[in-house]
Amino acid sequence: xxxxxxxxxxxxxIAGLSVAYALRRSGRRxxxxxxxxxxxxxxxxxxRDGYRIDTGAExxxxxxxxxxxxxIRRLGLTPADVPRIDGGLALWRNGKARRxxxxxxxxxxxxxxxxxxRLAMLRFGRELAAAPxxxxxxxxxxxxxxxxxLAERYDPELAAAVLRPLVGGFFGALPDTFGAAPLVAHLAAxxxxxxxxxxxxxxxxxxxxxxxxxxxxxxxxxxxVRAADGGVVLSVHDGEVRARAAVLAVPAPxxxxxxxxxxxDEAEYLAASTYAPMxxxxxxxxxxLRPTGSRAAAxxxxxxxNPHLAVLTVDHHKAIDRAPLGRGLVTAIASPAASRLxxxxxxxxxxxxxxxxAERYVPGLAPAIRATVVHRFPYGLPECTPTALARREAFxxxxxxxxxxxxxxxxxxxxxxxxxxxxxxxxxxxxxxxxSPVVVGA
Length: 442
What we know:
There is one protein chain. The longest helix is centred in the last third of the chain and has 19 residues, at 416-434. This protein has two domains: 5-46 and 204-274 and 386-434, FAD/NAD(P)-binding domain, CATH 3.50.50; 89-197 and 276-382, Polyamine Oxidase, Chain A, domain 2. The chain is of the alpha/beta class. The protein contains 17 helices and 18 strands.
């Protein structure tokens, strides 16, 4: 096909922008098509009245994110552009936010856990020491287990106080579906929460940097993608776009809908790569507040303590530029059950419910609220189920074709590192396609 583009990228999240940037650096004609009116996807930051509201991803890690740090250096960002988050992670227990959750120090101080719970944490630490390769969780002995299956090996307190809140709060998933191997691999890779970092100016910093160096068209939904005449044809709202290759850098269910003619080795993994929805409410405060007993940047809440709320992030502790001087910003992330129940509910009752729940942990929050912002993600994060892992090996072995994929679901690693790393895997496959006079594996 004599296409107008070498590569069309669908989706201006961090995966799609990373793909486009690498291909552009290789001298290829690339354009990114984004349905939303701004770039960033689940790493988008909304700016309102001096507040910077991270709508999805909250942080990255100083450890276990090698592809991300390669991109940071390539873009010329400095350490000041990726500051460390103060406060770390706390666990709410017995009426107080207990600091040092996820750290060795937490075993000494207790972090609100009983002696039995701390012993279970020590045992779980040994599990982390023998963790799966984060790029290949499907090859682990844990690949056939869910987090709920894994929890049965330990004291119930570990599941209630640590595993369930982690999976529900940071991945929006249910322990009965989320894969044990990806969770253990990710926790082992990132390590201590004191290594957490954020982007100065908002979590969309990298996305904005990348978007400034590639051709991006926002507000342009792609309706379908099909292979044709040695290339691809994209149907958009005002016609068709032809290219040698396309990269679908969107959630797996969206990719499956865009490319219904995908071969079996792709379609089966796409179908198995289910997503957990996520619902978040940002509270713009007239003063800085904090959870009782802690200056932590994030507080995990157990489902037994609150069926509606999974985690609170104190964004003005996370980074000083998230709220205007003298004000505060707190985000409530709904529990997996509440996210599913409230995803289609109107903003006002959703914000009122989560404000009422958050008040229990952040006294004085309700009267300090100046405004609320509700963010919904029908496709929050991939669940990385055992079924998906069982189909991943065939997906990875598929031949090069005109339609390629990128996203954290490709890596079975639900985080921004998974998205950036997926771009590194996609780019050489795309280049072999566009540089070849014959479509390989069509």
